[in-house]
Amino acid sequence: PQAWGQHEAPRRVKRAWVIPPISVSENHKRIPHLLVQIKSDKQQPGGVIYSIKGPGVDEEPLGIFSIDKFSGKVFLNAMLDREEHDRYRLRAFALDLGGVTLEEPTDLEIIVVDQNDNRPLFRQDVFTGRVVEGAEPGTCVMTVDATDADDPDTDNAALRYSILEQGAAGMFSINATTGEICTARPGLDRETMGVYNLTVQAADMSGDGLTTTAMAVIYLEDINDNAPEFTKEEFSMEVEEQAAGVDVGKVFVHDKDLAGSPSWLAKFTILEGDPEGAFAIRTDPHTNDGVLSVLKPLDHEVRDRFELTVSVQNERPLEPSAPGSPRALATVRVRVRDVNEAPAFRENPRRISVLEGTPPGTAITTYTASDPDTHQLQSLSYALLYDPADWLQMDPHAGTVRTKRELLHPSAFLQGGWYIALVLARDDAEPPLSATGTLSIEILEVNDHAPQLQPPAGVLCGRPGRGGTLLLGATDDDRPPHGAPFHFQLSPQHPQLARNWSLARFNGEARLHPTPAITPCPPCLPVLTRVSRVPAVSPRCPRGVPAVLAALGAARVRGRRRALRKGLLQRSRDDMRDNILNYDEQGGGEEDQDAYDINQLRHPELFSPRAKPPLRRDAPLSSGTPIAPRKLPSSPSDIEDFINEGLEAADSDPSVPPYDTALIYDYEGSGSVASPLSSIVSSLTDEDQDYDYLSEWGPRFRRLADLYG
């Protein structure tokens, strides 16, 4: 079409050509189809050449539109699809025959008109929803939705939803516009119907056009609206006695709720019949049955049957609206079957005490067991299972244990004074059962050994009232309390000895010394020794012992000492001189006995003033002879004068260190025949130390005796 001015002006006005939008229906089947004719008035007809460009012409999709270049007619050459292209925008051109532009290029818009050529499509073929059983009407479950490819601004895409099929009950409804599905009626029961399958439809043209369908599957979720029930009212089982931790049997239940859910799982309780808690019941997670088991051993002789009342309920509480079940209780009868049981020693171990030396054949105890099978006629027999020293014998029927030989100390079979034996008790059932008992026998010490004086003889020399002292000890083969401490006394069968001799307790031993009124000695001096709290057993003086105490005593004392002295106290290995032990002097102790030679007293003729003074044994080898040699006493028996004169000579000698003074006694030797004072507290505890002997030490120790005796 042409666009002309309304009137002519003084000068010519340029006119433009305008083409309005052109509408064409999709799926148009008459091809080619004239859409429009464009025309320019700049030249006479036949003098203009027309052309178009754009999508559908020289751009993809190609060849849909074309134009007659001389007439300007635009044609549709192919069917259009609005869902692919809903409009096309082209450019139109007008040129003269020489190719000169006559008109400015203009737009040519072709609009594709929609037709209802597309069905609605559901977004999925199957929709799934869930709702609890018993839901109220109007409870929304799910929403179904569909799409339509047609023009949404037309009825071609106006969809409506409906339920085509859901069964005869009609339990659900759908919103036609939104596609929301809700419950329509009460009475949804999972146990009656657990799944609903609905066929839903979507239609365009507001329900009158094209349609499509899909499936809506609705599952009912279980609630505990059914109580569990026992399959029967009574159950019977049996179990062996003494069995513990074993299953007895099962009780069976039924529940209509969803298997495996908390509304289905059962929980059992024993209400009555088991006051001691001997039974337990648990739930089998696979079958939901109750499993009865025994926790504690049952005794057929005490109780041979049980009648239990058992209840069942769910783990999840029952819905208030659900009815209760009359079969939520059941009776379980359990019979305890009798079996052979092993005998048992009620006292195990059995501890007894027997004196050592008990003669063979002495009955020391009766060790028997009891058979718990009181309802069966059975008997028990006994035997020694372990008797390492073969000291015992046992009556196989009565269980009496007797000594087979004397039980004596010491023995390798004793452990701390105890002898251990094992006794076997066996019943006569089939198969037989047995039990083992431990018999612990304490072998009590008996005072059957007399103490022995140590040494049995000794030498004691000196003037009456000024003689030496003999240290006496004792040994005993008996064990405590029939050994030390020992008590010493002169034999009461010789009362005259008390006038010449006296005994003094000295650190667990005795000191024997003569009295001032001593008379000629008898050939043997009997001394009585006894152990504490036990009647005395006196050793006899051996025959053939000459004079009063032979010289053996001093030799035995010296035999305990070391052969060589240390430091300045030197002597030759073959110099075994006998010295006097005087315990009344405060000096260097028993070990310092090398300063003077006792042979000067025994053989004074060898040591006259004319002879060369003897070399002091305790002086250094480099020491010289004193300027004033010692003067021998006129009477060799006067030992005290001899010692004093020798001490005075040593003190007056300026060239020799005063070895006879107290300075020499800083070394007291490496041993002592007397026991150390630390022996009084050598025990680890007060219970290990016997302090009764403190009462015999005299009035000075009376206070200690009162505290510890």
UniProtKB/TrEMBL annotation:
CDD domains hit by this protein: Cadherin_repeat (cd11304)
Keyword hit for Ribosomal protein: no
PANTHER family on file: CADHERIN-15 (PTHR24027:SF300), CADHERIN-23 (PTHR24027)
Membrane topology annotation: Single-pass type I membrane protein
Gene3D superfamilies to which the protein is assigned, alphabetical: Cadherins, TCF3-CBD (Catenin binding domain)
Positions of region (Disordered): 606-636
Primary role: Cadherins are calcium-dependent cell adhesion proteins.
Domain Cadherin: 16-122, 123-230, 240-345, 346-453
A GO cellular-component term linked to this record: catenin complex
Pfam families: CADH_Y-type_LIR, Cadherin
Record's keyword terms, sorted: Calcium, Cell adhesion, Cell membrane, Cleavage on pair of basic residues, Glycoprotein, Membrane, Metal-binding, Repeat, Transmembrane, Transmembrane helix
Protein's recorded name: CAD15 protein
Record-linked PROSITE patterns: CADHERIN_1, CADHERIN_2
A GO molecular function held by the record: calcium ion binding
Signal peptide: none
